[in-house]
Amino acid sequence: MIKALSVTSECAPLVKTGGLADVAGALPAALAEQGVQMRTLIPGYPAVMSAAKGKLVAEIDTLFGGPARLLAAKVKGLDLLVLDAPHLFDREGSIYLGPDGKDWPDNSERFAALCRVAADIAAGILGEWHPDIVHCHDWQAGLVPYYLRQDGTKVPSVLTIHNIAFQGIAPLNKATALGIREKDLVAEGVEYWGNISALKAGIVFAERLTTVSPTYASELMTPDFGMGLDGVLRGRRADLRGILNGIDLSVWSPEEDKQITPYKTARGKAANKKALRAEFGLPEADGPLCVVVSRLTEQKGLDLLLDALPTLLARGGQLALLGSGEPWLEDAFKGIDDANVAVRIGYDEALSHRMMAGGDAILVPSRFEPCGLTQLYGLRYGTLPVVALTGGLADTVIPATSATMAKGVATGLQFYPVTTAALSTALTQLCDIFAQTKIWTKMQRNAMAQPVSWAPSAAAYAALYRDVIERPA
Questions:
Q1: Within its chain, how far is the Cα of 71 from the centroid?
Q2: What is the pLDDT of residues 120-142, one digit of tens each?
Q3: How do residues 390-439 score in pLDDT, each as one tens digit?
Q4: What is the third-level CATH fold of 266-449?
Q5: What phi and psi, each to the nearest 5 degrees, are found at residue 387?
Q6: Which residues lie below 8 Å from residue 301, measured CB to CB, with a gap of 6+?
């Protein structure tokens, strides 16, 4: 049995801002079937503290400005270690942003504290339990490998990059406060363009690196996608692997989903489509009902959708959108005056399930997408993905081409380059295929049969853990 410590800033169903939480929440159960016992270290935000009534397992006199406690709790199948540090995490609103919508000014200290405690757990602060390996997620856990190496702790670490756009940048004058040695403030260490990068620290000092799809792993080593870290990653090419995310089939399953009218075949979607139209106030229409569940940002390509939308509407298509993000995009979508477009600003987990069940297609026009989960939900629910050819979208959707259609294996549509013109062409193709009932139904069946569970990914992670433990870098 391998003992693993997962270090994450968010974890579903306790606290979630994006796909990282879904991964951190689903991976432990999937790994248990591979002989890995995983405990998850997470900050004690108000939502976490209210759900995790745990047992005190360690006390810390001072941790980045105040005392802290470590609590052990089991919540919804998760084996948690909760870092109760009120001076760092007992804050209302977003876990990353203050009331002004900007990053908390002490975010670097907040998550360095999480990393410091993770390293102490690896060194034996809990007594009889300590991990064989530490799995660090994104920049918020990026200093863990650095602290482990600095302390001389012989526990290896794996860093997973979920989105390289977020790097945990701090000014150099915070080095002492963060416990970073002056000799490591160099290009070969944690220095990044005159600052400190927590993510770079993880990339440099972790024994192995992973990211959430094979294509994204390749993309990260290029200037277009590496966000200034492509050279560092090329230097660690031999230690970098892309392991595709999966989804939790106990949560996302059209046969058992309590948020919808359950169905086993594509034909069963009809009742959900009717209900979704009613919920959004959309009329009957001849074209496909397309859904978007997304952050409204340029990364997600939603500005391209604004410009391409007339193509869909002209063919009798419809759009139901759920999301929030950049104010100008929120305003632009809310300002569309068309009976076949309905917009909900915000996030509603139950509604997202109803949209997956009721939609004909899900649109994911991202400029870059490390893995993406919404297209996986779409596949599982027979809601055909229309995706940009990038990252995990390229790895998970079999595009409708002459060859794949002839073989009857297509599960969705892909477009490239990531432009308005290419997206408009894909939407035209979508409407053409939707009009051909037999072909459309076959693609829905293919999509619903596509393997999207965590099982193969968990097996890959478990194999990686064993390799790292047996042959550390």
A1: 26
A2: 999 999 998 999 999 999 999 99
A3: 999 999 999 999 999 999 999 999 999 999 999 999 999 999 999 999 99
A4: Rossmann fold (3.40.50)
A5: -130, 155
A6: 364, 365, 366, 367, 388, 418, 423
The CB-side HSE value for 222 (13 A sphere, CA atoms) comes to: 9
- The pTM of the full predicted model, rounded to 2 decimals, is 0.93
Assigned CATH topology for domain 2-246+455-470: Rossmann fold (3.40.50)
Q: Report the C-alpha gap between 16 and 85 in whole angstroms.
A: 19
pLDDT tens-digit map of 52-79: 888 999 999 999 999 999 999 999 899 9
Cβ–Cβ under 8 Å, residues 69 and 84: yes
* Angle, CA 236 vertex, CA 234 and CA 240 arms, to 5°: 100
Place of tokens 């948020």: 259
Residue 357's closest CA among 247, 446, 270? Answer: 270
Length of the chain, in residues = 473
- Alpha-carbon distance of 276 to 357, in angstroms, equals 9
- How is the chain split into domains, by residue range? 2-246+455-470, 266-449
Contacts 24+ apart (CB under 8 A), 463-466: 464/158, 464/208, 464/210, 464/241, 464/243, 465/2, 465/4, 465/36, 465/132, 465/133, 465/135, 465/158, 466/2
**Residue 241: is its pLDDT beyond 70?**
yes
**Average of per-residue pLDDT across 261-267:** 95
